Every structure is written in structure tokens, then in C-alpha cells.
């Protein structure tokens, strides 16, 4: 495992434990070159889940892309990394539990918005504004109205 700090290829495992969902092993490692610590995750390899993008091209599902989008939406918000990890795990489990090995990027975006709505409404609106490409203030306002209506129910 290459060190993300110095590129060293030798490290030792300091701690191993399963993640909350039991689907992965979290390993704390220490680089034997620079002595810095980093975390890796080990998971069972399954059939790849393919994402059908809006232009009909296909690429393998990348949970890190989903996590990065959520991180950007939650910037300067009181949301922990663990909350986002759990949300991404929920999204991935939902996708993998389906029978389809191909899923649209639209489906992933909708699942991401559902998870963000549960975690932080401001992050949800931020994500929705980029994802849905609000063209004007009115479409942004309409999304806020839907959120307020859902909150009342």
C-alpha cells in the first residue's frame, strides 16, 4: 500500500476493525519511511456496478465521487465525516441490493439528495442547486418551497 504522503511502499498495520455496517475492514497504517499514519479500507470485490451517465456513456461506480460531492455540499456545515460515510454506504447498499448492474447517474443523484436531506437541509439545497442546475432564482425558490412543505408534513 503506497503512502499518500511520501509514496513509500512499505507500511505496517496498526489497527484493524470492521466498519459499522460490517461490509469493510478499516485499517490504520503507519508508513515505515515517513512514519505518518493513514487509513485504508478493504472490501469484498463484487461485480462492478456501472453508471449510465447523461450522455449515455458508462463508467464504473465510484463511491469516492459521491462522497466528494457530499463533502463539497457540507463544507462549513456541522456534518461529520462519519455521517457522510454512513450516507454513502446507504447509497451504495441500495444500489447493490438492486438486481440491475447498471444504474443511471440520475438515480445516484436522487439517492444522494435523499441522504443529504436527512443529514443537513442546507447541504441538501447546495447539492440540489448544482445537481438540478437551477437556471434562475425561481427554480431555486421552488426547491426551497418543497423542502419547507416536506418539513411541515
Summarize the structure.
The protein has about 150 residues and is an alpha+beta fold. It is built from 5 helices and 6 strands; from the N terminus they run βββββααβααα.
Oligomer: single chain
Structural class: alpha+beta
Distance between the termini: 49 Å
- Approximate shape: globular
Q: What is the CA-atom radius of gyration, in angstroms?
A: 18 Å
Please trace the helix and strand order, writing H or E for each element. Answer: EEEEEHHEHHH
Largest sheet: 3 strands, antiparallel
Helix content: 40-55%
Total number of helices: 5
Spatial arrangement of strands, main beta sheet: 1-2-3
Give the amount of beta strand, in percent.
15-25%
Return residue spans where pLDDT drops below 50 for at least 5 consecutive residues. none
The overall strand count is 6
How would you sum up this structure, described in words?
With 153 residues, this protein is of the alpha+beta class. The protein is built from five helices and six strands. The chain has helices at 63-73, 81-97, 105-119, 121-131, 137-152; strands spanning 11-18, 24-31, 37-43, 50-52, 58-60, 102-104. It has a three-stranded antiparallel β-sheet, with no helix packed on it. A three-stranded mixed β-sheet has the order 5-4-6. The model has no long low-confidence stretch (mean pLDDT 90).
